[in-house]
Structures are given as structure tokens and as C-alpha cells.
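BUG-432 | component: ligand-complex export | severity: low

The export step for 5'-deoxyadenosine jobs runs without errors, but we want the raw record kept on the ticket for reference. Input record follows.
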Amino acid sequence: MPKLFIQTLGCAMNSRDSEHMIAQLKEKEGYSTTEDFREADLILINTCSVRERPVHKLFSELGGFNKHKKPSAKIGVCGCTASHLGEEIIKRAPYVNFVLGARNVSRITEVLHKDKAVEVDINYDESEFAFDDFRTSTVKAFINISIGCDKSCTFCIVPKTRGEEISIPADLIVGEARKVVATGAKEIFLLGQNVNNYGRRFSGDVEKINFTGLLRQLSEIGDLERIRFTSPHPFHMDDEFIEEFARNPKICKSMHMPLQSGSTKVLKDMKRGYTKEWFINRVEKLRKEAPDVSISTDIIVAFPGESDEDFAETIDVMKKVKFDQIFSFKYSPRPHTEAEHFTNEVDGEVASDRLAYLQTLNNEIIDALKLPLIGNIYRVYFEELIRDNYVSGRSDNNHVVKVKGSEELLGEFREVKITATGRTILTGEIVA
Ligand code: 5AD
Ligand code: SF4
């Protein structure tokens, strides 16, 4: 049996794409997976290109793989960096056997047999492709609902690597959800670059529904208990969506709302399509309808032209909203984006100071939010074994909670009382 080593970088979409590729290679080529690249017959790196650093790291990593791999082993570069660099990867690292873009993962078994193949067509339509089964987890399942992104945020390379947005037909999504629920998963995690834009474009003549309609259909699946999704776009958060989110007991009360900046001027330069006021208004509506909701966000500091006053607007939104989690990044210029040509860059030291300030404030906010949770009881769905005989899972509103326990808890719900808090994980004991 040939062995596959796969390294996955980046977002949940990439994790799911890796699962798709593993499924294809197992089914059609008889591969099994290994954790040790030295014994692998095929080494795949599923890359991310959203910021510059991982792209630099790719080539040093490739060098390491090439040096220590089995002489006959093939190396394939997949994912977003494959899409954006294409054949340049083979020019810079000639030992790479093939390059497979993020939009083309269903072609893995084709390129495997074509030396120096470069498949990076961003118009390739995978929206109705029936991927075989392979899932890393049996308790929860990632399900793609759309591919690509139709927005044109000026900082973002994704529309150039994943192509234009196509929604996957609802009957395929519901069928996939039924299948994973039948094999024991009680939670599904819907994935798309812009999930609440679902239904904007289908490639075939299929039932046209929007994201709210899709959520309603999925929640009718009897044994399915929880639905999560990422990422919704603040621009598309209309009242209908927020009300369905709040009303539907199967939808977990956890919302990722990528703010990017709190300054309306910067948001305009980023072409995000909303203002600071709209964002805060949507948070208020969400908290009014679903008071327990946890809200996470992404923020970019030092976008070109961001003044001290603009940055202060971001801090103002943070203080008003008190996000439960923030993923914060220094702006990183990306090829093929509009902002790449903006000349009003922010000084590097100023950028670092802003990021450090934001992260310190965020830690203070999180500490203040978590401390009062001691004594609360949450219904936790257990997902994985972690160190020292602990099992971890999530509350409906996305608190990560660990308790002493073993694998019998995996895939089970328990009522857990919180006994200690930390920034990323709460500790508790099972009470029922
Ligand atoms: N520079 C820094 N951060 C970026 N992101 C996307 N593009 C860039 C960039 N050029 C961040 C955004 C996005 C998250 C996935 O990555 O905050 O929401
Ligand atoms: Fe990138 Fe904007 Fe699309 Fe998100 S919505 S993937 S930030 S272009």
C-alpha cells in the first residue's frame, strides 16, 4: 500500500480540501496516510497564501522534504499558493512533481500520474463534484457549501486563488449532512468564503435557496444536533438571517464577524461594503435576538493609509463590542490585489506597535469576560482527547471546555460546571 504524507496549512477550507484529496487517493489509488514524511511515497503540502510569511516558508520546507524523503517519493504542492504561483513553483523547486490549485483538488489522482503537471484553473467547476468519504473526525463534519469568493476586498488574494463564487446545490449539501449524521456526527460545520451569500450563483439548473433557507432545511435532519458555519460576511447580515440564527435551536450561538477595521474610511479603501455603524448595529441586533451569542472577528492593522485616528476607531469598536476572540494580523501586501498598488504604506514599527497594543487590550477584554464564567453550567459536546487524560469540547456558544475523562466521552453531550478559566480554554467538571 503506498503511503501519503499530507501537511495542511491555513483555514478550515484547506482542511476540508485535504480530506477530499485523501479520500480520492485512498479510493482510487489505494493510499494510506502516514505522519512521517520519510516513509511516504507521496508528500502533499496544502498551502495558504493569504499572508506573505507562509509563502516564504513553503520553499524552505520543500527543500527539507526533498532532502530527507524516500528517493522515489513524489512531492505535490496544492492549495492557494499553488494557484497563485503556478508553474513558478516548479521553476524554483524543480524536484516538485506537480502543482494543484485550490479550485482543482478533485483532480489529484489525474495530476499524480502526469509529471510536472500544473492544474490551477480558477474557473474549474467543482460545485457538483461528488467527493468520496474521508473525515478526520467522526464526531463533527466539515461540509463545503460554496467555493470561491465574489467580493473584491482590496487586500485579499482569495478571489484570485479560489476563483468566482459558486454555491453547491442544496440537495448535495443536505445529502452529505444526512450521510455524516447517519455515521455518528451530531455536529456539522458549514464552510464557505462567504456563507451568508449562499445561493448567489449555482452552476446548474437547481433549486435556488438562500443561506437562511439552507439552514432551515438542514435543521430538519432528525439526529443532527448542532450546526456551525464560517465565515459569514457582515455586509450580508440582514434581519432575516440574524432572526433565523437566533430562533433556530440547532444553530450554535457563535458568530464569526470579520470586522477588518473599525474605521469607515479604511473599510471603504478595503471595499468591504459596510460602515463602522452598520457593523455595530448588526452586533446590537444579534445580541438583542441571541443574548448568549459569542462573537469572534478578524482585524487587519496598518492597512495602507490607516492613520492614528483610523486605528483609534478600531479600538473603539473593540471596546464597544468586546469580542470573545480576535484573530489579528498586520497588513501583508499580496500580489494580484488592488491594495498591492497603494503607496501610502504604514511604517513597519508603527504597524508592530498597533498590533501589540490591540493584542494587549484584547487579552484584558478576554480575561474580564472569562472570569465571571466560573460556576456557569454549559452543555458541552466532546470532540477530542487532549493531554493528561482530559477531553475537550465546545459549549453551544463556542467556549472550549476540558474535563477529566476518556474516549467514551467523544461524541457525547454533558452538562459541565466551570471550575477554572483561561484565555483559550475553560476547565470544568461533569454535573449531568
Ligand atoms: N494581510 C493581512 N491579513 C489578511 N487577511 C486577508 N488578507 C490579508 C492580508 N493581505 C486576513 C483577514 C481575513 C483573514 C482570513 O486573513 O483578516 O479575514
Ligand atoms: Fe477575501 Fe473579502 Fe472574499 Fe473574505 S470576502 S475571501 S476577505 S475577498
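Assignee comment: Attached the raw record above. The chain has a mean pLDDT of 96.
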